[in-house]
Q: What sequence folds into this?
């Protein structure tokens, strides 16, 4: 069973601390008071770290952009002249390659043209060209390596730091460590792809052995009911009767919780009801973009027209839905949400609705990358003009890369041996690259010193003022942390 040092109320014979008293008196209300205090005094006496933050933070919050299905580094951010020179020739990796499927055909150049952008002349593909406008704010890691070419395991690894289920998402760790700055909104919000979940679904942002309230709150902003069951639909339910019903449920749960002080699940349920009551006002307002001015909508590639889209994947649809999520992320950031995860691409289906381009890179990556780039550049520019980029980290990731050789005639197979991440804002040094891939984009150029997800996570926690080695929770006799037993801060990325 996990032991949560932030809630040490299992010993009935020990004197009650102020935390225990708050937690037990009033059930979930005490928990809310504690959460509020921890949000105002980050980590002070929480038991996660000693004292407050380990060092002064450069960032307060994170927006993570996750490309579900494995985005190709070779067709977006990692330019390889060798693939142009040897396009169509038999691929020779100089070693045995463990392919996921049958993707070891001839060398394949990108179907997209690359051009240089920014002061450093960084190459970008035409489908992510809008990001050229902010390229000098971005820092790239081109030598990231994974552990598996299986979507579910690889997605777990990037989302939770482990390649199997049962571990908290990064947003849950941040929520647990720093608490909330706004008691009317969740600390950790997830905006999935509009078509559905990517591999593993909500387990990517589950709390696992952390307190249940740290899990991600899923919001589908394009749906009629972005948060399911947030508002009562029955005609006989009035605002007053709804409030009285919630109060009664909370009282019953609180009374029961007093007899089950070692189990935090009921406390989390109570807090969920209480937060839901506040969300009925705060979330509805935060998700309403109708009052955003036209120039802001245009920045994200949005307009006010209602459109019906074809079944085939298309750039206009991707731009609207990804841009909408990016705009809502900005609105949530303004309201002090700590961690926001935006997904592009759902789990595998046909025709393709994610980045898993085994059959046709141009068909899938073209629309997906175009929509992602337009929404992302709008987000970066908007945060920057509002002074929010200085303390907000934006992190772009995917579960693994894709092979430099051909699968079929136009697709690419999985490549867990190297892929790309990028970061900007929140203390990140723009215009730099930390780690390159080899001439083919097959493996790291320096195979002895690759970057791993633990290093990315350690760096982001560092920017939040947290020593990743000290953010631990004992579970099943092991002191667990987001970075497992690995990870080092990528100092070359820090401004």
A:
């Amino acid at each position: 069973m996990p032991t949560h040092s932030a809630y040490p109320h299992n010993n009935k014979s020990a004197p009650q601390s102020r935390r225990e008293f708050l937690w037990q008196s009033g059930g979930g209300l005490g928990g809310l008071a504690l959460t509020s205090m921890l949000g105002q005094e980050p980590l002070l006496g929480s038991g996660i770290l000693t004292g407050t933050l380990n060092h002064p933070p450069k960032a307060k919050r994170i927006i993570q952009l996750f490309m579900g299905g494995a985005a190709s580094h070779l067709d977006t951010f990692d330019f390889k002249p060798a693939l142009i020179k040897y396009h169509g020739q038999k691929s020779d990796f100089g070693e045995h390659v463990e392919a996921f499927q049958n993707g070891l055909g001839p060398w394949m150049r990108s179907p997209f043209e690359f051009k240089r952008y920014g002061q450093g002349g960084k190459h970008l593909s035409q489908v992510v060209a809008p990001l050229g406008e902010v390229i000098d704010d971005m820092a790239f890691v081109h030598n990231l390596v994974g552990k598996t070419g299986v979507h579910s395991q690889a997605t777990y690894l990037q989302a939770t730091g482990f390649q199997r289920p049962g571990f908290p998402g990064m947003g849950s760790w941040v929520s647990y460590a720093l608490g909330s700055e706004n008691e009317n909104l969740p600390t950790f919000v997830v905006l999935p792809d509009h078509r559905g979940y990517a591999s593993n679904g909500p387990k990517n942002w589950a709390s696992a052995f952390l307190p249940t309230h740290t899990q991600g709150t899923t919001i589908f902003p394009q749906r009629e009911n972005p948060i399911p069951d947030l508002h009562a639909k029955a005609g006989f339910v009035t605002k007053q009767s709804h409030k009285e019903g919630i109060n009664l449920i909370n009282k019953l749960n609180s009374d029961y919780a007093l007899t089950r002080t070692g189990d935090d699940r009921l406390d989390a349920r109570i807090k969920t009801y209480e937060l839901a009551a506040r969300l009925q006002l705060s979330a509805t307002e935060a998700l309403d973009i109708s009052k955003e001015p036209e120039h802001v909508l245009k920045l994200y590639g949005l307009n006010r027209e209602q459109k019906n889209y074809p079944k085939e994947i298309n750039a206009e649809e991707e731009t609207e839905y990804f841009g909408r999520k990016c705009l809502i992320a900005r609105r949530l950031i303004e309201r002090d949400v700590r961690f926001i995860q935006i997904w592009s691409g759902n789990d595998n289906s046909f025709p393709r609705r994610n980045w898993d381009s085994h059959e046709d890179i141009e068909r899938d990556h073209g629309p997906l990358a175009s929509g992602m780039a337009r929404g992302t550049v709008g987000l970066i520019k908007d945060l920057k003009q509002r002074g929010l980029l200085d303390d907000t980290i934006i992190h772009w990731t995917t579960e693994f890369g894709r092979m430099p050789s051909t699968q079929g005639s136009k697709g690419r197979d999985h490549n867990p041996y190297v892929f790309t991440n990028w970061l900007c804002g929140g203390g990140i040094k723009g215009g730099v690259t930390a780690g390159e891939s080899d001439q083919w984009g097959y493996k790291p150029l320096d195979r002895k010193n690759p970057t791993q997800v633990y290093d990315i996570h350690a760096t982001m926690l560092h920017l939040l003022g947290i020593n990743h080695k000290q953010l631990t929770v004992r579970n099943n006799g092991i002191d667990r942390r987001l970075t497992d037993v690995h990870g080092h801060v990528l100092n070359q990325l820090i401004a």
The chain has a mean pLDDT of 87. Residues 434 and 492 are 7 Å apart (CA to CA). The chain has eleven helices and 14 strands. The first strand starts at residue 2 and ends at 3.
